[in-house]
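## Example record

The block below lists the input lines for one assembly entry, exactly as stored, with component labels intact.
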Amino acid sequence: MDLATRLLEGDRRALARAITLTENEDPAAAELAAAVFPHTGRARTVGVTGPPGAGKSTIVDGLVHLYRQQGRRVAVIAVDPTSPFTGGAILGDRIRMRRGTADPGVFIRSLATRGHLGGLSWHTGSVVRLLDAAGFDVVLIETVGAGQAEVEVMRYAETTIVVSVPGLGDEVQAIKAGILEIADVLVVNKADREGAEALARELEAMLRLGDPKPWTPPVVRTVATTDEGMADLLAAVEEHHRFLVESGRLEVWRREQLTTEVETLVGELAGRAACAWASETGAWGETMGEVTARRSDPRTAAAGLVGRFLSCRGAAVPGARLEEKPEGGEPDAVRTQ
Amino acid sequence: MTQGKVRVLVAKPGLDSHDRGAKVVARAYRDAGMEVVYTGLHQTPEEIVEAAIQEDVDVVALSILSGAHPTLVPRVAELLRERGVDDVLLLVGGIIPEEDVPALLEVGVARVFGPGSDLDEIVRFTLENVRRRGA
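Predicted structure tokens for the full assembly:
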């Protein structure tokens, strides 16, 4: 029986292997993605983000527990950073996710960023779909410890939970653009600590500034290690989901998500094709010679290359397959030579 | 990126009260470019095998200080076999008396690393013996 069929039947080893193939950009992954796609679009996605040590993994563990009590099957994608120096990674989110480990209704997968910025892994969207196709009702996505710019989770999560903790800075932090802005639900975790109530009030005050919006993110106080406030958090997530469905935003969001994904892939495939063409024809070396001699600036050089690529090759796009990332065909590789 | 990274589960079965050794090994694996899933203290063999499956690791490295290895290690090996996981490299480290090593190798452990083992040797052995898997 092939991998896709086994995955669709809920075989956990098949699912795990499928995720590996996807992460490794194995040629089999494209086929697999195509085979499971018609079976996706059912799972709900909930993102959990926030600074390192805020309690994201513990909150995910608590949500898994509550969803299981409702009888829902839950999958978790937990992302940790890859070392920029060695390419290795310590994936430690499971340490805090103990309650679901031996439960057949739970599947937890740790992913490394492998150089991807934005707080997630390169293949988060594809992995969500594999889990969805394997029959999980909810997919929780935990980002790396995020600062102010790791907002990518909102692209994959219908509901984004932003976890904050007391003691990280003054109230100006709360009105900065970025991570707080993407919250559908705000959590003040470690609510038993000094400064937690003040932080929660600052966040609430910040949310009242500006024009009223159709959805105002609630601020939920939790002590995730003791499950305090976790039921309120789940209720807030459910409430947001109802809002998305009733307002018709969920459909819009899903359409936009697919549009963005296709757009991104078009850019990626076209970029790889152009780089591969440039390497093959020698145009790459020629152009880089001009740039390193400072006769041509990077933007002009890149525009020139793309122009030549389009006029030379027309519709033919060699090297455009996703799994083909030519060594030395990419700017970084060339620069280090 | 077509060649996958080596993924390792570093796990501590049983009741050990500290995990310094496990962390040192996890760090060495990371520095060698591997992706290390670390699950923390007090794991049951069932939890370890389930994590190994979900994480689709190439290597399961067990660290045991408590002396419970004669029961814990065979149990992990047995569960891996039961679940059809026949392609992982099973390693054991920690405080393992010399006379207990043959029995562990017998149940499927590839190598036992006792106290004072050289980290470079652990990494080298792991990389050389990990089974590179196709689709």
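Chain B touches chain A at residues 1-5, 7, 26-27, 29-40, 43-44, 46-47, 50-51, 53-56, 83-85, 135 (CB under 8 Å). The longest helix of chain B spans residues 69-82.
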